[in-house]
Amino acid sequence: xxxxxxxxxxxxxxxxxxxxxxxxxxxxxxxxxxxxxxxxxxxxxxxxxxxxxxxxxxxxxxxxxxxxxxxxxxxxxxxxxxxxxxxxxxxxxxxxxxxxxxxxxxxxxxxxxxxxxxxxxxxxxxxxxxxxxxxxxxxxxxxxxxxxxxxxxxxxxxxxxxxxxxxxxxxxxxxx
Length: 176
Prior knowledge:
By secondary structure, the chain is an alpha/beta fold. It has one domain: Isochorismatase-like (Rossmann fold, 3-Layer(aba) Sandwich). The protein has 7 helices and 6 strands. It has helices spanning 11-14, 27-37, 57-61, 78-87, 104-109, 124-138, 156-168; strands at 2-7, 42-47, 90-94, 116-122, 143-152, 172-174. A 6-stranded parallel β-sheet has the order 3-2-1-4-5-6, sandwiched between helices. Helix 6 links the parallel strand 4 (116-122) and strand 5. Helix 2 (27-37) runs parallel beside helix 4 (78-87) and helix 6 (124-138) runs parallel beside helix 7.
């Protein structure tokens, strides 16, 4: 099966607490890709924190409260949110950069098998690359891909370096 994973395309990463210029420009293209894949082939992650975020390991390194469950910033952004609803995409909440495939809820939500996995979303250098590694371990025979037009980072130079690292991990980089 061919699968699409939309990684953390949430309001706080687009125009909220950790948003950056240009992140909003991915919205219509990600939404279009979601619709291309269609029902039964799309998953999405949500970075999900609690009120205690600043006391966590991540919060101590990145002391900016963001994507707290149930807040506006936790919601998926814009047209992408509508597209995910339209195709009945499966959501996976995660408390750190990559999905925890040992978590029973996450494991149950993931596809049984995958031949081809495309990832898109934010931020390329944190959560996209982390989830690429997780998915590569979970589906060792699947071909992973990242479309360079559908991911970004707050730091464009770091985004380019991340695409290089992904390519080194045998992830195919599309449209670079």
